[in-house]
Amino acid sequence: MPHALVNMTNVTSLEGTIVLHGAMPPHSSVLLANSTLRATVGGSQYVPTTPGHEKSRYGPALVLDGVRLLSTRFVMTRSTLVCGGGSCAAILVERGLGSNLSSVFYMDSCVVNAQTHVMYALASDLRVSGGSVFSIQNSLWSVSSINIYKGACEFEDVAVDGGSVLQIVSNTFRLGFAMLMATTLTVADGSWLLHRDNEFRTAYVAYVANENGVAFRDRSVWSILYNNFTCGSYSSTIAYMTNNWSPPSESRPIIYGVCNEARGSPVTDYGVDLNIGAPVMLLDCGACTVEAVCFAARTSSIRGCECVCAAGGYGDTCVPAAVPDGLGPLPLPEADDTEIRCVHGGSISSVDYPDPGVRGLCFVNVTFTAAIVLDLWSFDAPQQTLNITLLQCVLMGLSIRGSSARLHVSVVSSMLDAGALEFEGHFGLSSRILVAGSTLVATSEHAILFMEFTFGANSTLLLIENYIEASRYAIYFFISFVVVDGGGIIVKGNTLSTTEEDDRMESCVCVNAVDVRNGGYIDVENNTMIAVSGIYFYGDTTVGSAGLL
Prior knowledge:
mainly beta; 3 domains; ten-stranded parallel sheet; 2 helices; 61 strands; Dispersed protein family protein 1 (DGF-1); DGF-1_b-sheet_dom
């Protein structure tokens, strides 16, 4: 049978669903890269085909229907998946998901934002077998649901056998009840379950429903290395690895624990701190053994903490199937000293001052792990238009301070789930701010704030097809006058929401005073507004010189 090559690169989908069905021919390859897939329960046209679920709606961006990987590579990298709605699942699995005969399934450097599920399986199991690798790595999952017994990833039975590897490495999980929910979890035939270098903000990393539903057999190993466990949105007190797991007395699972932290303190008792009801072999931080940090069956030796692979071992930890090429962030292209370079993928906690003459900043599919302040006075590029671009990024707060220069800001297909998006200072003549197709759920009283802010003549502000939520004001102009001189403000096709009703001042758009002149305009249309007030003007409103409100 001929193999299949499926390449989905630079795909943008809104309310569309990509469906992969059935067994892939041996030695096939599936690649989803540098893409943005968005869907909602209300907008998606996908109808499940699993018997008994035809009337359910999940708004998936990607469906894996009976997918079987046989000596096949399946890679998702540098992509963003977003789904909205109370029952949404960004990835929907039907009729099982299997990886066999040295296949690989990698989700690498991806951002997934879902209201309920990242990956949800309808009456389906996950099986990784025959020397295969299933890897979630360098990714960010954000789930807003706080419902009990709802997992970001849900399957019936999860089985890793035949000398295979299930690894969760270098991710950030901002979740509610659980990262993984399953009926049973079985690791057998010398296989390896690895949790390394993750930040888990959730009540349970693995919640297994059946009593004694977790089993490690045939010298299979569980390595728990360098993770940070903190509480998620479901509970302010629970941050466990498992739920009350106590293996049978005759079972002796091999579990290694190295340098983990739970709720701000080092883990010293894995039963008390992480709820693991089986003996755990503790190693000091920096200590390494072949069984703890490598896939031992394909490792010949270890030098310090570096695994030396035997025949059939691949990558830094000697996993049993070849690691795909092209993972991780894209390298920076060659550019002139003043050209704007785009950073592709990866995580960033701060932004350095630009070199003299550089005309802007560009970030694509980047996860910011801290609030960022961009002070445009730091740019030494006189008489130039400064461009700030954020595409498919995850933000924890962004403040942009104008410098009187002409500025073009573009925030597209991005997500903010902490802090706020704030604009300050003077934006020069013919400046433009575009926020489109993004999800901004603020932890503060405002999601988008304009503070001590002025717009130059003939400037435009475009807020298009976003979901914007805050406690008091979705969009707040905290300035004496909003002057629109020959330019325009367009707020169109958004969902604007506030969550409080304390003083009856809560509003989707709050403005002190408005002065629209010289052909300027303010256009607010086709939005869904959920608040005490839709638009609240609490000062003077002046429209003159062919202005339009």
